[in-house]
Amino acid sequence: MSREADKHELPGSSLRRSPVRSRGAKRAPVRAACLRWLLLLMLSTALAPSARADAFAQGARAYDRQNYLLAAQILMPLAERWDPRAQTYIGVMYLRGRGVPQNFLVAAYWLHLAAGAGFPEAQYFLGLMYDKGQGVPQDSVLAHAWLNLAVAHAEPRVRDRWLLIRDAVASKMTEAQLWEARKLAYEWRPDPPR
Asked: Is pLDDT of 147 > 80?
């Protein structure tokens, strides 16, 4: 290119070809922009769990106050972002028809996600659904396996009640079915976090 072409401006613009800069001068603004972006990303990911925890607490309070519509509005986005506590609440709400239309298939979907993540309350409700055949095929083996896992990880305040339910399901099963259910529970591993 000739030197004459370097002197010309682009039509309708005040842009000119800039003289060659050193490499350091070109990298400084890019480096600063990258650092700002990285800092923003770190701050947003650091604040996300606490914001999610606050939203979950609000949803749980709304549920406890029997404001099921508000609870569903708050908890559904959390459930969709793989929070097993919220998935359990949403599953139970669909199971009972509170704040959402009763739908056993949708309840089973949400409870299965949370149970697979290792959440005992979801495992308990999913076990009940398998026992009754609500939203899932009736299956005593899977019912007992999920209830067994729930009892194993239950908080003390609910363990005895859940144990009675698990044992009631076991009373309807053959020894071979019990062996299979116990084997499934023993070999079960939670799904990796998403």
From this structure: yes
CATH number of 17-187: 1.25.40.10
The ranges assigned to domains in the chain are 17-187
Q: Which of 106, 44, 51, 56 is nearest to 83 (CA)?
A: 56
Q: Which residues contact 98 (CB under 8 A, 6 or more apart)?
A: 68, 92
Quick check: pTM over 0.85?
A: no
The string of DSSP letters for 100-130 reads: S---HHHHHHHHHHHHHTT-HHHHHHHHHHH
Cα–Cα distance for residue pair 151/107, rounded to 1 Å:
20
For the cut 70, the answer to whether the pLDDT of residue 45 exceeds it is: no
State whether residue 63 is helix, strand or coil.
helix
